[in-house]
Write a structure and sequence with these properties.
This protein is mainly α. It has 13 helices and no strands. The longest helix has 31 residues.
Length: 260
């Protein structure tokens, strides 16, 4: 009967491999791994926590890839790390104290919200790229406002997380940053901090299913490296359409389950 335990792990690992490849090209891998864990029978909150922990190591690769751009950013922007850490912790605690039934009703809304953000990511990045230039910092009242907004972004990221990088990228553009690569480097750093704090709370609360995490984390990293070339040959637009389609289908499926 052991194969009944191995098959779910293989299925989750395959989803993580695909998510790693998608993240390396277009982002949105969480929209693959989270629904898969739900379909494998994990409770919604546990599925969310397990998916977050499993995908988190991949963010180290993004930070490393953007290390030069990150080094060029204004030092004042590093202050946004603090509300990222705090917000991630608050969001994770909110999730910890949300009943499974309430979160189950929120799942279709959260997936639809994340999918919508993913749909507008392309236009947002193209608009920001048109104004690409030298990076800028934040001062005075603008910095205080950015800190407050980053705290809210961190709370959302710790609670659910899918699409938070798109929100932060848009906010950095609104606050006057213009170099799209530096902005991507910062969002990678902030996401790393948000999820890093959240997973500590998830682990302490016993919300993580480690067999899934170990299988998924390795495959997510492998997918990011090994399948990135294939995903790029398929093309970013095709990958994006696939992720959007999955998000919309999952929204409909989970909404239908609630109506039964």
């Amino acid at each position: 009967m052991a194969h009944w335990h191995v098959l779910p792990l293989l299925f989750a690992a395959s989803a993580a491999f695909l998510a790693g490849a998608i993240n390396s090209v277009a982002g949105g891998g969480t929209l693959i791994t989270f629904p898969v864990l739900l379909f494998l029978g994990l409770p919604p909150i546990v599925a969310n926590a397990t998916s977050t922990v499993a995908i988190w190591p991949g963010s180290l690769g993004s930070i490393w890839g953007f290390r030069r751009e990150l080094g060029r950013t204004d030092r004042t922007l590093r202050w946004l790390v603090l509300p990222s850490l705090l917000g991630g912790g608050i969001g994770a605690l909110l999730l910890r104290h949300t009943s499974s039934k309430v979160f189950e009703h929120l799942v279709p809304v959260l997936i639809l919200f994340a999918t919508t953000l993913f749909m507008v990511q392309g236009p947002i990045q193209r608009r920001l790229a048109l104004h690409s230039g030298e990076g800028s910092g934040l001062r005075g009242a603008k910095l205080a406002l950015a800190l407050a907004f980053q705290l809210l972004f961190g709370i959302y990221g710790g609670y659910f997380g899918a699409g938070v990088s798109i929100i932060m990228l848009s906010a950095l553009g609104i606050f006057g940053l213009t170099d799209i690569l530096e902005m991507s480097a910062l969002t990678s750093l902030f996401s790393f901090c948000i999820n890093g704090t959240a997973i500590l709370i998830f682990i302490a609360a016993g919300l993580v299913r480690w067999p899934f995490v170990l299988a998924m984390a390795l495959c997510a990293v492998a997918g990011g490296y090994g399948a990135a070339g294939l995903a790029r040959r398929i093309g970013r637009p095709t990958v994006r359409r696939f992720v959007i389609a999955v998000g919309l289908v999952m929204t409909a499926v989970f909404a239908a389950r609630l109506l039964r």
